Amino acid sequence: MLHLKSFCLCDATLATKMEMMADDCETRNILRPLVFRLHENAPAIVREVLLERGWTEFDKKEQDEADWNLYWRNSPFQLADHHSVKPWQRLNHYPEAVRITRKDYLARHLKRMKGAYGSSLYEFSPVAFIMPNDYVKFLAEYSKERQSVGRRPGFWICKPVDLSRGRGILIFRDIKDLKYDCSVIVQKYISNPLLISGYKLDLRLYVCVTSFCPLTIYTHEEGLVRFATEKFDLDSLDNVYAHLTNTSINRYGLSYRKYKEGIGCGCKWTFSKFRSYLRIFGVDDRLLWQKIHHIVILTLLAVTPLPAAPNCFELFGFDILIDDKFKPWLLEVNYNPALRLDCSTDDTVKRKLLHDVVELLNYKQSDAYRRNQAAGIKAGGRRESWSRAAKGVTREAPGLLACQKVVKCVSAPSLHPAPQPSRGSGCKGAAGTKKSSSPHPKKTLTSELRERMNTPRTASQARPEAKKKQLPVAPHKSAQLRLPTPDFSSYKLTPHPYFLSDKDQRPIPRVGGFVLIFPFNEAALQASRDGTDVKSIIKEINKSLSRQLPSKKQKTKKRVGSATSWRKLSSTVTEHTGRQMQRQHKLTRENPICWTQRTFS
Length: 601
Ligand code: ADP
Hints:
Layout: H1 2-30, E1 35-38, H2 44-52, E2 56-57, E3 70-72, H3 79-83, E4 90-91, H4 98-101, H5 103-117, E5 128-131, H6 135-147, E6 156-160, E7 170-172, E8 184-188, E9 195-196, E10 199-212, E11 215-220, E12 224-227, H7 240-243, H8 247-250, E13 268-270, H9 271-280, H10 286-301, E14 314-322, E15 328-334, H11 344-360, H12 364-379, H13 384-389, H14 398-415, H15 420-424, H16 427-431, H17 445-454, H18 465-468, H19 478-481, E16 510-511, E17 514-518, H20 522-527, H21 534-548, H22 552-575, H23 579-590, H24 592-596
Parallel strand pairs: 1-2, 1-3, 3-4
Antiparallel strand pairs: 5-8, 6-7, 6-8, 9-10, 10-11, 10-12, 10-14, 11-17, 12-13, 14-15, 16-17
Helix pairs in contact: 1-14, 2-11, 10-21, 12-17
Bound molecules: adenosine-5'-diphosphate.
The site of adenosine-5'-diphosphate has 21 residues, from strand 6, strand 8, strand 14 and strand 15.
């Protein structure tokens, strides 16, 4: 009897377990891999990373227009793409992001901001003139500089407004050398850059804007330090290998593959290496990064608001040059920062960067959505995917059958992490698989359901959470009752960011290597809601900047520390490498007055 009872108990537990496994299995069966869509010339690393993550590539012939989760292109999307975007989809460009990525547009926006909010706040961008329109203004500035007594005339750099990778750039001192046959900007050349072992460098900072309204900005803590491959020399202005830090130029230089004292082979470091390098010299670089973050925010504010467009993100490449006083300068903002893998440093930085971008896009909701969508289909009595999943299963013993299903659907994804055909089947199959040629995709069962589930709810429609969790009674199978409930209210096509973490709509402060830099406090958050209140945000930035400014007494003390140590660093770096740097580090620790009182002017 006892035996029989315990057997029954075991049996009951087993049955429960089996049912739970069945639920799990059913859930997994409905979850399908996420799908990416790449436009021609999209970087290969994007495909690699997404495949690594178990995504599948969109197949025009097999899949519905709306049946992808991420569309990556190197050029802007058409407005129709933005209009027809679905809640489970993300586009990698904002409409009109080009407003800051074209050199002349950027110069114009920053100039306007200088006029509106004071040039001291926006003095991070070198003075620039857009040619040919600003020729007279440039001439005036050039002459003024030449005539000022005791001041050596400076250098200028001329850059085509819509070219990249260092193409068509000219550095000059004498106006007679200025020649151009297209629209260019002439910018003050920063002739005192920070040098490491005599080599010029700049920073490629990756910035991801997940929303322009409300403004939400992340910067990646890892990035690239890009070196020129020949020593900086103001006497040879036409030597691109000494003055330009573009990899696309330097990889053709004779010294590219050679070991270069102080920087090694190639022309790139990671930010981590740069940070450790600075710290070896006792340089506290926190203020530098803060300044850089301010540059990013102030630059993006210059083009805010962009037209509201949901479900877009933008990965910008900010080029920052640091001068020998440790002041960061904004050189330009790149629309499609290069994602080519030229060396192992690129691989380290860019692969992780892209993984983190995908994390930032928060596809968990879409996963859940797909699950809910399937549940919705079932609740509505359309059971294509369900009946397909149950094919070959007899009707007599539901518990056992569920278990058979577990074997089927658990093994399939593990053997084939990204089973393309499974997307073609299931719900989409019911709607047909042919791609629509119209810019607005044809309505299919899939897209209609998705849209229905993502329709914003009005306040009067809102119900308490508990009520929402009620699943409409599904006929027959008990397992269906345990399927996740379609949660219509969580899926809204709204201009709010899709990654919001809490009920107060505060973005997650950190995602992988991405660190939230805006909003940086409650006031900034408020000022960026319901339209961006640039004035209030600038006020907050000014407050934060004034907190950074040392008191008069500290200032004198620190300036000595700063100038001495930084000059010392710049010159020492030229001679010290490897073991010598470590010896210097020891010196730093033993002589704290000299090496630790550092700040940046
Ligand atoms: P591109 O889009 O062609 O790369 P950039 O503005 O990024 O144009 O300039 C290319 C390179 O030229 C930079 O990486 C930097 O090394 C150098 N450079 C550009 N502007 C300046 C400047 N104002 N001062 C000093 N160096 C500059």
